[in-house]
Please model this.
Amino acid sequence: MAGKKKKSTTRSGTNLESLDQYTFFLDRALESYALRDALKQLGARVEMHRDHFEEGADDPDWLPEVARQGWIILSTDQFNYLEREAIRNARGRAFLLMQGSMKGDEQAALIVGAMRRMLRILKSNPPPFIAKIYRAKRVLILSAELRPHSSISR
Model:
């Protein structure tokens, strides 16, 4: 019995060890040290808006720059047409947290809980895309103008 292997409980392709391949960009609305630290603890690289742009920088100005860096945008904003176009034209990837009035540690817990689903979307969907993260840890790709509609909720 000592030689018996333990069965893996992670689905193929959703191992969090691959997080070191990704850099997550926290925009002004989602910029918190709790979220930054939680993502880093998982092994992800993290960039914060305040480290690269002025506080009043308009989203259509910085979104393409972040997308061109290959960074994954995390936000609570519901991007307007110009912002979605900026992401699309720069072949960006964004995840939008749909629960607005949460504290940093609550946001961190929700995103960490949804991370395997987020990784599946990152690995199976080429840019550009925008996906929404819901409190039930459901992650849904939206924006028909960017790509066909699909969902991953397991």
User: Anything to note?
Assistant: The two ends are 33 Å apart (CA to CA). The domain at 17-145 is CATH 3.40.50 (Rossmann fold). Strands lie at 23-26, 45-48, 72-75, 93-97, 129-133, 139-142, 150-152. The chain has a mean pLDDT of 83.
